[in-house]
Specification:
It contains 17 helices and 15 strands. It is an alpha+beta fold. A five-stranded mixed β-sheet has the order 1-2-8-5-3. Strands 4-12-9 form a three-stranded antiparallel β-sheet.
Length: 431
């Protein structure tokens, strides 16, 4: 057992810049080891991560003893403990069955036009400037728009919800925040729940048909459903529905801009977009960790895990495991076989995977086909400080400035230097 290794250095900015080299060093030493600094087992190999993620002997409960949590974080921990992400069967199965109807591939596909329209608006605004921060201008507002549409949240309230989401996601992503940050996260969750309670119980503005709010409002009228539990999971959808997709879009855009040959191939072969989305998710996963806890003493990959001990499943490391993905550092849109764990694995497989895939495909196609001369242009990309999530703080790009005029399914663009150019409107490749 490799006893001196630790996952903790992944929080350092220098390590974030070479994160997958760091993972390789850990995995090559041992694909499952005890981390004395984090007081947890660290799983880095694809086989052990995927096996453990689906193992019913391992619990997804994050806070088995709420009273043991710091006083500042305790209110947030109580809410998180009622969310399906941190629940086991039968509670997890019951909650997932309730919400899954809104996130089937068929339901996600119905949002295609709304997503495409939102992307088009963002690109049209940026077109005359020739510049964009992909994170702030596109990756953050788009998923927030879509999940808020699903919840029927009024547009004027959406920035406030986003501001509440940020400290909560920070607390979920790190167990090493100070009291002030933990208190801010708990307060933000309390405000979000109060808002959602009002949204789901208001009578002056009935929910739009076929929205998630309509589903949840109907469920809230069912006396058999715990309303606080419903609110907690509604908050989960809001946070997870845009935080992780934001990171995926930013990470994928950076990967394409850093691999121009791969980007050119995708422009020429739009039929590769579905495979490209999966490969980009594998290549730089927005979610890096899954937490599990041993229900009782058990054997995992030849190690004895005592009851109660935590096992951290490092999805990002598993997705670069050469045993599962030959030449894992290569971005290959025609990679054969292999199943990444960017969306998790087993019963907790990401509920919003179909929607995230659809948003990613539409955004990436628009970036590749609607912004001529797209290139990195700004300070080196920086990563947010988190063990759980991997996402950029900003991603500055430049492209040829143009003014867009729309006609019959094409965008005619004229560069600001007066030279004409024509850029095809994004097609609907991939879901």
């Amino acid at each position: 057992m490799h006893t001196s290794a630790s996952l903790l250095p992944a929080l350092r900015p220098r390590t974030q810049e070479r994160l997958y080299d760091f993972y390789e060093e850990l995995r090559s030493a041992d694909d499952l080891f005890w981390d004395r600094r984090l007081d947890a087992w660290i799983a880095t190999g694809h086989a052990v991560v995927s096996r453990a993620a689906a193992d019913p002997r391992l619990s997804s409960v994050r806070y088995p003893d709420i009273e043991a949590v710091s006083e500042e974080l305790r209110p947030l921990a109580r809410v998180l403990s009622r969310q399906m992400l941190y629940s086991d069967a039968p509670d997890h199965s019951r909650l997932r069955a309730l919400l899954s109807r809104a996130f089937t591939p068929r339901s996600a596909a119905k949002l295609r036009d709304r997503i495409s329209g939102a992307v088009e608006q963002i690109i049209t605004r940026a077109a005359p400037t020739g510049r964009m921060d992909v994170v702030a201008d596109l990756a953050r507002p788009l998923p927030l728009t879509i999940i808020c549409d699903l919840l029927d949240v009024p547009e004027q309230d959406r920035p406030t919800l986003s501001s509440w989401s940020d400290p909560i996601a920070e607390a979920i992503g790190s167990s090493r925040l100070d009291a002030e940050h933990n208190r801010a996260a708990s307060q933000s969750m309390a405000r979000m729940l109060a808002y959602l309670r009002e949204l789901l119980t208001r009578h002056d503005s009935p929910p739009a048909p076929h929205t998630l709010r309509a589903l949840l409002t109907a469920q809230a009228q069912n006396t058999d459903q715990d309303f606080d539990e419903l609110l907690a999971n509604c908050a989960l959808l809001l946070i997870a529905g845009h935080e992780t997709t934001t990171h995926f879009i930013g990470n994928a855009a950076l990967a394409l801009l850093s691999h121009p040959d791969a980007a050119d191939r995708l422009r020429r072969r739009p039929d590769l977009m579905p495979a490209a989305v999966e490969e980009l998710l594998r290549y730089d996963s927005p979610v890096q960790l899954m937490l599990r806890r041993a229900r009782h003493d058990l054997d995992l990959a030849g190690r004895t895990i005592p009851a109660g001990q935590v096992v951290l499943l490092v999805c990002g490391a598993a997705n670069r495991d050469p045993a599962a993905f030959p030449e894992p550092d290569l971005l290959d849109f025609e990679r054969p076989g292999g199943r990444h764990v960017a969306f998790g694995y087993g019963p907790h497989f990401c509920l919003g995977a179909a929607l995230a895939r659809l948003e990613g495909a539409i955004v990436l196609e628009a970036l590749l086909t609607r912004l001529p001369g797209l290139r990195l242009d700004g300070p080196p990309p920086k990563w947010q400080r988190s063990l759980n999530f991997r996402g950029l703080t900003r991603l500055d790009v430049a492209f040829t400035q143009f003014s867009a005029d729309h006609d019959s399914g094409r965008t005619q663009a004229t560069a600001t230097d007066g030279s004409p150019c024509s850029v095809s409107r994004a097609t609907n490749a991939g879901t």
